[in-house]
Design goal:
37% of the residues lie in helices and 24% in strands. It folds into 2 domains: 2-168, Nucleotidyltransferase, domain 5 (2-Layer Sandwich); 176-299, Beta Barrel (OB fold (Dihydrolipoamide Acetyltransferase, E2P)). It has 330 residues and is an alpha+beta fold.
């Protein structure tokens, strides 16, 4: 699968194409589309649209990831940037490609590991992750980082409803991470995939069955997006993740409390307590009071899996050396 990342801008629009095959990411192309400074707005937007159309026709990506635009101090600049971004989205839609959008915070967290990273840090991590011989330009690096973020997270944290292959795309989140178990400190673990260490919270039922540090692991994950953070929760079974997703839908039950429930009760035991309307059993879990337990019994009835399928732990494929081909439109 090939992914086109776009860092939109009216003056300079960066683009980067990344190929993903299994666990391996390969650099394909990157560069910048520059518009004529001082030119009329329609002309500059046409330059962006035509330039990205040429990139798409040349490298044939299957998905597009684009950085979100936020309001800044200058409303006029924000409006112009939004129009440039609109031209970029149109280029993808005209090619029938699905589009996902990511904030700068999400991109930096996925590539560097912290949302306040500087551009130089993004350039360095892009160079390392894609095994490049040199640093790409700042705009191209941001676009490549957006593509890498999308490659790590599927159709991402905010897919736009565009048409692809005759059907609407579905917004998804990071659903699975495979890599090396680097750290274990209950309930937190760190899994390294493609050179990025993901901090993941897991229930104790999963923690007790993890391999030793340094070994391969694969976790089913659920991403919780907040204004101040993006939190990953991991599970070794689909049943645990399904139960977690049902739990956090209940009023008064957040991700941490849901994790505590799954640490104190197996999915089968939780389902049995709900079926028997045994609220007292649920109150033994830290953080669950009588009223919350009663809501759990009421709202989880017939919504929990009765069995817990075991997840397989497998070793990810070893990454190979990418073949780089630099292309730039100036």
């Amino acid at each position: 699968m090939r992914i086109l990342g776009i860092d939109p801008g009216l003056r300079v629009t960066g683009f980067g194409v990344v190929g993903r095959e299994g666990q391996r990411l390969d650099y394909v192309a990157s560069g910048c589309i520059r518009t004529r400074e001082g030119g009329e707005l329609p002309e500059r937007l046409r330059t962006i649209l035509d330039g990205l159309a040429e990139v798409i026709a040349t490298h044939r990506p299957e998905q597009v990831a684009i950085e979100k635009v936020f309001v800044n101090v200058n409303p006029q600049s924000t409006l112009l940037l939004g129009q440039a971004r609109g031209a970029a989205v149109c280029a993808a839609v005209l090619a029938d490609l699905p589009v996902a959008e990511y904030t700068a915070l999400q991109v930096k967290q996925a590539v560097v590991g912290k949302g306040n990273a500087h551009k130089e840090q993004v350039q360095e991590m892009v160079k390392r992750l894609l095994k490049l011989s040199g640093h790409p330009s700042a705009d191209a690096a941001d676009a490549l980082a957006c593509a890498i973020c999308h490659a790590h997270g599927g159709l991402g944290m905010g897919a736009l409803p565009t048409r692809a292959s005759g059907c609407a795309t579905e917004a998804r989140v990071i659903g699975r991470i495979a890599g090396t178990l680097a750290e274990k400190s209950p309930p937190h673990v760190v899994v390294v995939a493609h050179g990025v260490g993901y901090e993941i919270d897991v229930p104790m039922s999963t923690f007790y069955h993890l391999p030793r540090t340094g070994e391969a692991v694969e976790l089913l994950t659920h991403l919780v997006v907040r204004e101040d953070a993006h939190l990953l929760f991991g599970f070794l079974s689909a049943g645990e993740r399904s139960a977690f997703r049902q739990l956090i839908k209940v009023s008064g039950v957040g991700p941490k409390v849901a994790l505590a429930v799954l640490s104190g009760l197996s999915v089968d035991d939780l389902a049995a307590a709900v079926a028997a309307e045994d609220a007292a059993r649920l109150t033994r879990v830290p953080g669950i009071g009588k009223k919350t337990a009663e809501r759990l019994v009421l709202e989880l009835r017939d919504k929990l899996p009765s069995t817990v399928p075991a997840a397989k732990v497998r070793r990810p494929a070893r990454p190979g050396r990418p073949q780089c081909a630099a292309v730039a439109w100036l």
